[in-house]
Amino acid sequence: MRFFNTIIAVLKKTFPEQESSFGLLKINLIISAFIVFFLYIFRPFGIALLESNTFLICAGFGLMTFLAALFFDIIVGKVFKLKGELDQWTFGKWILYNLGAMLVISLANFLFARILIIGFIDWSLLPQMVYGTFMVGIIPITVLGGISILIQERKYQSIAKGINQQKALLQESNTNEDRTLFEIPLNRIKYIESLQNYVYIGHLDNDGQFKKITERATIKNIEEATSGSPVVKSHRSFLVNVNDIINISGNAQGLLLELSDCDRSIPVSRSYVDLFRSK
Questions:
Q1: Is this prediction's pTM over 0.85?
Q2: Is-contact 257 245, C-beta < 8 A?
Q3: Contact, 205 vs 57, CB < 8 A?
Q4: Which own/partner pairs from 86-90 qualify as long-range (CB within 8 Å, at least 24 positions apart)?
Q5: Which residues make Cβ contacts (< 8 Å) with residue 21, sequence separation at least 6?
Q6: Across the strands, what pairs with 254?
Q7: CA-to-CA distance for 19 and 273, rounded, in angstroms?
Q8: Where does residue 185 rank: exposed (0-12), middle (13-18), buried (19+ CB within 10 A)?
Q9: In a 3-state reduction of DSSP, which class is residue 245?
Q10: Distance between CA atoms of 242 and 234, rounded to whole angstroms?
Q11: Residue 9 pLDDT more than 90?
Q12: Secondary structure (DSSP) of 27-75
């Protein structure tokens, strides 16, 4: 039972998915290069029987892998938004996503092999190609994913430890109590969360009780209104009052901020980590 609980806990770990298109291209290039290397060295699936152009054929499979993975990322990942919010992306979801990608890759490589190499299509052989693709891809993808989580977790845990030790975020001096946002003094605001054209504002009321209100505004307008104050952007959907941070921890996607008098952990995405380290 403990073993299965451990597996479930690992699958629920946040996964450091790339936020930029360049990052996705780099990962797809690495996977495609691995496919070319693996096929050329071990020559499975009848490749060993080829008498010529072996490397070019292996490179062709690598190219098809790259194009199919790119297609899957663009159409399924971005157009249909299968990934959802990156801060909710887990290791388990990442594995399932890649299983879908491998299915598309196996179809692309099947068409490449049957049309360009053999010259005709025999759909009864497609399951064999799917099985072979999964056997080649699932182990390295899972291992690389696990290594990526481990590296990123250690990185951001180390950053969080350094910030906690320096207490840099707790020494913010600009606490201008005269400034307000929707009649709420900025020094009472804990965090602000964006939801399309609305924002949730977590704050303390006049009695010191934590409250959350909803206002119609964009995160960009809020960021401009709080410029120069301790309320700063930590994530594309969050602003946080740095004076209320009591502890910082790290996971594979960045940092997590714990606030006084508030049970909500606020994320700091990787693109904002350096901003918090400099404060």
A1: no
A2: yes
A3: no
A4: 86/17, 86/19, 86/253, 86/269, 87/14, 87/235, 87/253, 87/267, 87/269, 89/14, 89/15, 89/17, 89/253, 90/11, 90/12, 90/13, 90/14, 90/15
A5: none
A6: 251, 269
A7: 14
A8: middle
A9: strand
A10: 10
A11: no
A12: HHHHHHHHHHHHHHHH-TTTGGG--S-HHHHHHHHHHHHHHHHHHHIII
Compute the residue count for the chain: 279
Phi, psi of 176 (to 5 degrees): -45, 105
The one-letter amino acid at 85: E
Give the model's confidence band at 28: pLDDT under 50 very low, under 70 low, under 90 confident, else very high. Answer: confident
Q: What are phi and psi of 252, to 5 degrees?
A: -70, -20
Q: Is residue 257 within 8 Å of residue 266, measured between CB atoms?
A: yes
48-52, 100-104, 223-227, 236-240: segment of lowest average pLDDT? 48-52
Amino acid at 74: I
Q: Who has greater pLDDT, 88 or 238?
A: 238
Q: Which residue carries 């965090």 as its tokens?
A: 191
Q: Give residue 4's pLDDT band: very low, low, confident or very high (50, 70, 90).
A: confident
Q: Which residues contact 106 (CB under 8 A, 6 or more apart)?
A: 126, 129, 130, 132, 133, 134
113 φ, ψ to 5°? -70, -45
Residue 181 backbone zone (phi > 0: left; psi -120 to 50: alpha; other: beta): beta
